[in-house]
Amino acid sequence: MKLFKKATSLTLALSLIASSGLLLSTSSAKAETVVDLLQQSSLSIAKPSAMQKAYISPGLNLNAKSAGPINVIVQFRNQPIAVGKYAAKMGVNTFSAESTVSSINSQQTSFLQGAADKGLSITKNFTYNTVINGMEITIPSNQIQALADLPEVLSVYENSTYYAIPAPNPTQDQPFIDMEPLNQIGIDYAWNVEKLTGAGVKVGVIDTGVDYKHPDLKDAYKGGYDSFYNRPDPYEEKPDLSNPDNPFEGTYHGTHVAGTIAGRATNPTSEIVQKGVAYEADMYNYKVLGRDDKTGRASGSSAQVIDGIERAVRDGAQVINLSLGADSVKDPNSPDSIAINNAVLAGVVAVVASGNAADSGPYYYSMGSPASACLALLLVPLLVLPKFIQLVFTVH
User: Fold this and answer.
1) Which of 240, 311, 380, 387 is 20 to 30 A away from residue 94, measured at CA?
2) Are residues 225 and 148 in the same domain?
3) Quick count: other Cβ atoms within 10 Å of Cβ 61?
């Protein structure tokens, strides 16, 4: 299954609204954080019953004759750390015991032991405990049903693949800062009147990595991680044209996104000097897409995206940006969507591209995971944004 990746200036411009600590007020009650807003809402957290049968995604092949290896994301019944902390703030202690690191580790160890006792062939690839309680594993496809029968398992989903869509190349002859898109959403007012520039806000960009040596980004970059290669350095991948039959143009999409969010407008040689919507924000980057040798393109997986979300939350990001779209996956309970929801419960503003118009066109039903997450902040129509700016209030 291919989940296509999209980024537009409009989607990422919403990061200023988030990065500047702005939220849409829907009532006269005072609210100072995302958690406060959720506490005032009717949101409730349901504890999964021990008798509830594990959910298996219909996209998985359970054919008993098919024994080929497949990567799946397994979610366990205990709630993750983010949900436990949020519930405690609400005065609900139901999840306090089960959402500790030790309890989650114990359940995951019990799962692995149970799988071994059943003779299941499992390779553990990623482990999560913050925004979801789960793992990404490799297992023969004809063992998925037996996997789902283990008492710790809540759901089993396919590990979907994401691809990056190239951004158009600039054609301007002279260096300039293109303010028109920013002014259309009221950024001039936010900067000049409200003095909101993103200063002091930690933004996590979950993408293809970043060229943190770029003049417009080097002072904004504060750290991150490469979940694609599982190493500390999230630097963009350089082009490799050594194989003319399968050339790799390198990755750059994450740098494009980072510049739109936090560019410092200090590059004197570029044809475009990039000033981001939150140009004084501290930027953290998480590389979840990288070189695919089979296609020569940049790609990644749900497991790597979730790992990026996990690490951003642990690093204290106040805002995360995912310019990711999945037209064909619309499940609000997918692991990607659950991870976004739980990141928000942890107090993070999650900005996610709504739909993938570059592939499906501006049409109905184009919004997919992780934009199907109930608590994500999504791209909204251009005409709505000026009114949105007038309705926001500052979170201190």
Assistant:
1) 311
2) no
3) 12
